[in-house]
Specification:
single chain, four-stranded mixed β-sheet, 7 helices, 4 strands, 38% helix, elongated
């Protein structure tokens, strides 16, 4: 399993762009591997609605489209690789506008399942799942049955 976050510019020239990168990662992981990335939402309203003038705030509240993970664009600052991953055949997407994740592979459904949200991430979000898998793989199972330790390890990961 791999969680990817990269700038295409860091890779240099890649013929085929982000799609080629995603295909290469999937090839490297093989049929048993899962690749995932944070996607976010390019069209999210600003965090500072209270700081906007009355008319602009009213427009955002009354006119801004609701988040729809089927058509929402990936945040530009998350890069082209997550955008390409999100549109791969078989891709799953966790429908959270700020902490959305896309995944392809056998663990995609588990990684993108809806979970209780804790400040944008969740105790069972992909970040925490990856942390837990790494800990279990190294014989360091550090989460208890209610997820408390798992949640704490996520924030420190």
């Amino acid at each position: 399993m791999a969680m990817v976050h990269c700038r295409m510019s860091a890779l240099g020239r890649v013929v085929g762009g982000a799609e080629t990168v995603v295909r290469a990662l999937l090839d490297a992981l093989g049929p048993e591997g899962t690749i995932m990335a944070y996607t976010g939402w390019q069209g999210e309203p600003p965090d500072n609605l209270g700081d906007l003038d009355d008319e602009t705030r009213r427009l955002y509240i009354e006119e801004h489209p609701a988040y729809d993970p089927r058509v929402a664009l990936t945040r530009r600052d998350h890069g082209r690789v997550p955008a390409a991953l999100r549109t791969c055949p078989g891709a799953r997407h966790r429908g959270h506008p700020e902490a959305g994740e896309a995944a392809v592979g056998p663990l995609a459904e588990v990684l993108t399942a809806e979970h209780e949200v804790l400040g944008g991430a969740s105790a069972a979000s992909a970040c925490c799942f990856v942390t837990a898998v790494a800990q279990v793989d190294h014989g360091e199972q550090k989460h208890d049955t209610d997820g408390g330790e798992l949640q704490r390890s996520c924030w420190s990961a």
